[in-house]
Specification:
InterPro entries: Dimeric_a/b-barrel, YCII. Pfam families: YCII. The strands form 2 sheets. Strands 2-5-1-6 form a 4-stranded antiparallel β-sheet. A two-stranded antiparallel ribbon has the order 3-4. The termini are close together. The chain contains 4 helices and 6 strands. The radius of gyration is 17 Å and the shape is globular. A hairpin with a 2-residue loop joins strand 3 and strand 4.
């Protein structure tokens, strides 16, 4: 079953960390990727760019309208994800706990089943 392990970024929290703490988190991602690649559970992973570089597309009266900026004004935004294929949700929770961001006060990992993979079980 596939799960998306979603990392939310909060710039206020991230900037409150020391340079060594930020470096530790980044190195921890490398170790995490190696672990889930070796176990065969990694499907894909991506880090996303800053929301200030995003655009929102809406179709109004049949014409696309593109506006700059994030969809919602929030303190947190989607920073990246790991798509994993695991035995069950408990394993997804275990993997989420290994992501270094989960150990940072104020941050966490959202674990969400992938709908087409889960089928009617959701």
């Amino acid at each position: 079953m596939k799960y998306l392990l979603i990392m939310h970024m909060n710039p206020r929290i991230w900037e409150s960390l020391t340079e060594a703490e930020r470096q530790s988190v980044m190195e921890g991602h490398g170790k995490f990727i190696e672990t889930i690649r070796e176990s065969g559970e990694l499907v894909s992973t991506e880090a996303l760019g800053d929301p200030s570089a995003s655009a929102v597309v809406r179709v109004r009266d049949g014409a696309p309208v593109v506006t700059d900026g994030p969809y919602l004004e929030t303190k947190e935004y989607l920073g990246g994800y790991y798509l994993v294929d695991v035995e069950n949700k408990e394993r997804a929770y275990e993997l989420a706990a290994l992501i270094p961001d989960a150990s940072v006060d104020g941050l966490g990992i959202e674990v969400r089943p992938v709908m087409f993979s889960a089928g009617m079980e959701m």
